[in-house]
Prior knowledge:
Two copies of one chain form a homodimer.
Chain A: E1 9-13, H1 20-29, E2 35-37, E3 40-42, E4 56-58, H2 61-69, E5 73-79, E6 82-87, H3 88-96, E7 100-104, H4 107-116, E8 121-126, H5 128-138, H6 145-162, E9 167-170, H7 174-189, H8 192-204
Amino acid sequence: MIFKERGLLLVLSGPSGVGKGTVCRALREDEDNNLHYSVSCTTRKPREGEIDGVHYFFKTRDEFEHMIENNQLLEHAEFVGNYYGTPVDWVNKILDEGKDVILEIEVQGAMQVKEHFPEAVFLFLAPPSLQELRNRLIGRGTESEEVIKQRLLVAKEEIEMMDAYDYVVTNDEIHKACDRIQAIVTAEHCSRERVASLYKKAMEVK
Amino acid sequence: MIFKERGLLLVLSGPSGVGKGTVCRALREDEDNNLHYSVSCTTRKPREGEIDGVHYFFKTRDEFEHMIENNQLLEHAEFVGNYYGTPVDWVNKILDEGKDVILEIEVQGAMQVKEHFPEAVFLFLAPPSLQELRNRLIGRGTESEEVIKQRLLVAKEEIEMMDAYDYVVTNDEIHKACDRIQAIVTAEHCSRERVASLYKKAMEVK
């Protein structure tokens, strides 16, 4: 069934502390969506109750390094002496089943995914402080010059980070951020490139 | 307030008979959205109860032709001896108020809007027959060769039409089509170009 609609790979990232994990958990708990969650590979030892292929794919250091060399990871990072990474085969398998996959990762990881998988949809989760700062800058400012200056430095970095993303989702309230993400998934499934290419492929059969 | 978020112009079009009017009416009746409906100019005489500026902007033929010459219409067409068109000033005024505007027009009109207002979001409403045809072509076909051939001709034209649009919304069920359109509006408000440029403008204040 080569004409079946392939799932979307969504990459949810953003500055540390913005609440990526919380938003991702909320999406996972909502049974109304068709989102599947990435299972990572790791060289860390399994903890009590952790199942290989469910919580993680557990790998030896040699196996993991072999995967890196053979481009079998969408992204990877080392964290307190252990490797963590996203296996490309697993992601492709789920996408081929027509399911959407969501990957929650740090900014550096997201940029690695962009290199290996540019057709993914990149979502930048933005802190509400950015929105507040914006409102304050364009409204009547009540903060001191010094406070505003400091915030502007952080904000400028965050805004520069956005450039590599397709969407910016403000995490003002978790349920609102989740609704926006689900709307983006629906919209992306309606994108003309996607729908028209499916029709064109079907027409070629005749 | 130059940094206020400007509304989106949505152009809903598609082959004749696909149900553009019905979908647009359903969106209009739903009070949950922020969509505003375009008021057209026309040279047709007002009917009983029709109010200038509410149902139409009523114009003389001279006034209308003057608007065409001065590029004051996003699109226009002549229909049984009367002109109909969308006044660009009115649309810009509503967008500047931060409201989204939806315009329901024929394919030719949509292409005129694209010329005058390329930043609009173009939605192609697709007949469910296209989806059914696709399923039949890739599944087990039960129709005769002749029927399939005839449908393919129509489908090819429809698929070619799609090329100028940003999204394809299948009108399988009215409420589903409306949900998809609302999701597209939400997603477009999260587009990185849009959000990042608003932040960048706000930062320039300092």
